[in-house]
């Protein structure tokens, strides 16, 4: 079955970016001249997605105003921020009985073809849940997740188990990065998933349960990821996307060269 729908959880409080996120939802922070959430919606559309549900919370009005008039975008309220798994579960009626994509709202990926499109292609080949994965330094995995896996080839792995923010006994340096293709069977699993890490309903816990029933594929996607909840990554995203704009690139390169080689040093 073709993947026509996508869900973008975007209801997080953005605590790492306080105080600005008191006024602007984290997914609406600008990258150059458009909000980060714009890049995710664009990625979904370029991947062939026809209908997009954005899960919203405290910043609903700002997001609604920005996407007003876009017939492909629907907003769904998440009354309380209960975790990524709960956010995806809020879209069960929207998705219905179809496979669907999930794009976590604080992850922007610069890639061509789009990351979600790469996952959809893998889903069509395997008819199984697919997660975008990459390799991280071990010291960073405690802030993310780590995957126990079996290699398939140089581009794909068979996922056995995912550990959320591991503090010890890290199974590997491979991590899931916020892009997924799920079958509709994830929703009954999410309905029974209890709060886990941080007292929230974690998408990772539901995936682990799903993996007991279906094989899961990890795809080493081609592209560059930016976590806009991380201030360093957010600055780098603005810089790299600006350098891609012809009207900014020359002046930016000149400024960077002067910063790297200040006069008198």
TrEMBL record:
Protein keywords: Nucleotidyltransferase, Transferase
Reaction(s) catalysed by this chain's protein: alpha-D-glucose 1-phosphate + UTP + H(+) = UDP-alpha-D-glucose + diphosphate
Any one GO biological process: UDP-alpha-D-glucose metabolic process
One example GO MF annotation: UTP:glucose-1-phosphate uridylyltransferase activity
Nucleotidyl transferase domain location: 5-240
EC number: 2.7.7.9
Highest taxon, organism lineage: Bacteria
Protein family according to the UniProt entry: Belongs to the UDPGP type 2 family.
Protein name: UTP--glucose-1-phosphate uridylyltransferase
Organism: Thermoactinomyces daqus
């Amino acid at each position: 079955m073709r993947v026509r729908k996508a869900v973008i959880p975007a209801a997080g409080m953005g605590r790492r970016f306080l105080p600005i996120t008191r006024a602007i939802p984290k997914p609406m922070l600008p990258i150059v001249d458009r909000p980060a959430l714009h890049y995710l919606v664009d990625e979904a559309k370029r991947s062939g997605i026809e209908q997009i549900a954005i899960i919203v919370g405290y910043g609903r009005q700002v997001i609604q105003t920005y996407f007003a008039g876009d017939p492909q975008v629907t907003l769904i309220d998440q009354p309380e921020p209960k975790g990524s798994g709960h956010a995806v579960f809020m879209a069960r009626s929207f998705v219905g009985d179809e496979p669907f994509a999930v794009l976590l709202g604080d992850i922007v990926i610069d890639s061509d073809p789009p990351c979600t499109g790469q996952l959809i292609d893998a889903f069509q080949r395997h008819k199984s849940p697919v997660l975008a994965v990459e390799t991280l330094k071990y010291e960073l995995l405690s802030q993310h997740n780590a995957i126990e896996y079996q290699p398939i080839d140089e581009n794909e792995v068979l996922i056995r188990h995912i550990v959320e923010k591991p503090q010890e006994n890290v199974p590997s340096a491979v991590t899931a990065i916020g892009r997924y293709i799920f079958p509709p069977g994830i929703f009954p699993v999410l309905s029974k998933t209890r709060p886990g890490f941080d007292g929230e309903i974690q998408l990772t816990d539901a995936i682990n349960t799903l993996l007991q029933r279906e094989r899961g594929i990890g795809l080493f996607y081609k592209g560059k990821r930016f976590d806009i909840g991380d201030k360093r990554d957010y600055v780098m995203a603005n810089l790299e996307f600006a350098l891609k704009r012809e009207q900014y690139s020359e002046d930016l390169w000149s400024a960077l060269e002067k910063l790297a080689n200040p006069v008198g040093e």
